[in-house]
Design a protein that fits this description.
It is a single chain. The chain has 287 residues and is mainly alpha-helical. The protein is built from 15 helices and no strands. α5 runs parallel beside α8, α8 runs antiparallel to α11 and α8 packs across α15. It is globular, with a radius of gyration of 26 Å.
């Protein structure tokens, strides 16, 4: 009896020394701070550089401003070219986000909630879109006459954002219980009513996530506008920043001010909704 009890008695889990846990936490915190510093250093350098003069940047490239020079930012903010490019970027980003969310939500709903022949092939076709570079859209856009227009930027951005959108939304929509749809149909809700009144509110975290990703990717897009847009009046901000840097290559402080101002909308948008992105992606993985 004593031997049997000895055999079946589970061993107590080994407890790590408190000092080892504390040391591990300190190491993780140090690595995290190091990575955060490496990511923020270029942004801080660009923002502070806009408050310096060209002479200060030449003498001490990594120093702090001796006198806060607001004229660089004031000149950029007073430029009509800057605000025109802000408007072009806003149009492209908002249109891309609206269409990506609407089309992605409808496609993901059909693929995740209905069983039909070829459903797997359609889903595989959408996911295969992740493997194509955006530059393959240039030739069709040229044939369709969409070169040098914002529509030529928006259409391929929508097409190339849809695969990731469907991949994120499908698990969310598939996780909605079928019993809920049955109960809704008993209460008189049709398929569209169930979609608008039940599915859409439940999928808000994932919808917000894909919307933020589409907006930020469109706002920061550079390669596609570089190939599509030739007219400076149609430039988006990333392309305008490159053109501004080429035009005022000797005025480094003003170029840094222009660059930092062009980053602010995307940084604010991403910072405000960062928790939504993490929550949406976590839900997609769980689903």
């Amino acid at each position: 009896m004593t031997a049997t009890a000895t055999l079946v008695t589970p061993k107590a889990p080994r407890r790590r020394p408190a000092g080892a846990n504390r040391g591990s936490s300190v190491l993780v915190g140090f690595v995290a701070l190091l990575l955060i510093g490496m990511m923020l250093a270029p942004v801080v350098y660009i923002v502070l550089g806009g408050f310096r003069s060209n002479a200060e940047i030449t003498v001490d490239p990594s120093g702090f401003p001796t006198r806060w020079n607001w004229e660089n930012y004031a000149d950029v903010l007073g430029s009509g070219v800057f605000w025109g490019q802000v408007g072009n970027s806003a149009i492209a980003a908002i249109a891309t986000t609206v269409f990506v969310v609407a089309l992605g939500l409808m496609a993901a709903y059909a693929l995740s909630r209905y069983r039909f022949r070829g459903r797997g092939a359609v889903y595989a076709l959408f996911t295969a879109g992740l493997m194509f570079p955006m530059t393959v859209a240039i030739t069709p856009l040229y044939i369709l006459g969409l070169m040098n227009s914002l529509a030529g930027v928006i259409v391929p951005q929508i097409a190339f954002a849809l695969p990731l959108t469907i991949i994120i939304l499908s698990p969310f929509l598939a996780a909605i219980p079928g019993e809920l749809q049955e109960a809704s149909s008993i209460d008189g809700l049709g398929r569209l009513g169930f979609f608008w009144r039940m599915v859409l509110p439940l999928a808000v975290p994932a919808v917000v996530t894909v919307g933020i990703l589409a907006f930020v990717n469109s706002w920061n897009s550079y390669m596609l506008p570089l190939f599509i847009l030739n007219n400076e009046a149609a430039y988006t901000l990333p392309l305008g920043t490159q053109a501004f840097a080429s035009q005022y290559s000797v005025d480094t402080a003003r170029v840094l001010a222009f660059t930092s101002l062009s980053m602010i909308p995307a940084l604010l948008f991403f910072s405000v909704f960062e928790r939504r992105i993490v929550g949406g992606l976590t839900g997609a993985v769980k689903g």
